Amino acid sequence: MSGHSKWATTKHKKGAKDQARAKQFAKLIRQVEVAAREGGGDINANASLRTMYTKARDASVPLDTIERAIKRGTGELEGVRYEAVSYEGYAPSGVAVIVETLTDNRNRTGADIRNIFSKGGGSMAEPGAVSWQFERRGVLLFPKTFDEEQLLEAALEAGADNLVEDGDHWKVTCAPSDVGGIKDSLEQAGLVADSAEPSLEPTQVVAVGDEGDAHKVLRLLDALDDLDDTQGVHANYDIPEAFLVAFEG
């Protein structure tokens, strides 16, 4: 079980809860704004913006809210300027962690993340210390109710690289820039993804075989993910499915 895929599924379930909706909206809006600032406000010409726009719409963010975020990004409306900053560290059991943030105050965000690592039994690391254990990929997760052969054939035809079993999902991987196009192609074939986004996939994993240690890792990741500035949490753990289910429960 890869760190990315199960964590993406956990976030997906968590994001569906009403209590988390406001925070989820705020993070998605920030992603839309930054994508528009970096690549322009045309979703047809800006692949990153198109991906973030689709994520926001899939999460039921109101269209006018998304459009205002795009205008703030392009400078048509006044807004806060956010900076993309990544932080690296280790969770308990030596699990490598990368936290991607969008912040208007890197000193505050860095201090918050360091505090969470410390309280959670982990530690911060220097830039580059763990990033070599990950690679940027596009990841789409589909329910197991879909036929494997049908999904594989459609995914490969759409330009995906591979399909593997991942817990209660099929995981389709591709180049990060191809996520939006592949998602659209598969939806036209009636294959709707539970999640679709560029991400950091671990190239090697750390086995966590003790349930207590596993829950320590997951609590730390959960706390990092809850931080307002956090946009993505990536970890290279290999935790038994039963431990993950117990934690989610």
In short:
This protein has 249 residues and is an alpha+beta fold. The protein is built from 9 helices and 10 strands.
Give a count of the beta strands, DSSP E runs of length 2 or more.
Answer: 10
Question: Assembly state here?
Answer: single chain
Number of self-contained structural domains: 3
Ranges where pLDDT stays below 50 over 5 or more residues in a row are: none
Question: Nearest-angstrom radius of gyration?
Answer: 18 Å
Relevant terms:
249 residues; Arc Repressor Mutant, subunit A; 3 domains; Alpha-Beta Plaits; 10 strands; four-stranded antiparallel beta sheet
Note down, in words, how this protein is organized:
The protein is α+β, with helices and mostly antiparallel strands. It has helices spanning 3-15, 18-39, 47-58, 63-74, 106-119, 148-158, 179-188, 211-226, 241-248; strands spanning 83-90, 96-103, 123-125, 134-143, 162-166, 169-174, 195-202, 206-207, 230-235, 237-238. The chain folds into 3 domains: 3-74, Orthogonal Bundle (Arc Repressor Mutant, subunit A); 83-132 and 205-248, YebC, transcriptional regulation domain (Alpha-Beta Plaits); 133-202, Alpha-Beta Plaits. The protein has 9 helices and 10 strands. Strands 3-1-2-9 form a 4-stranded antiparallel β-sheet. Strand 1 and strand 2 (96-103) form a beta hairpin. Helix 2 runs parallel beside helix 4 and helix 6 crosses helix 7. The protein is globular, with a radius of gyration of 18 Å.
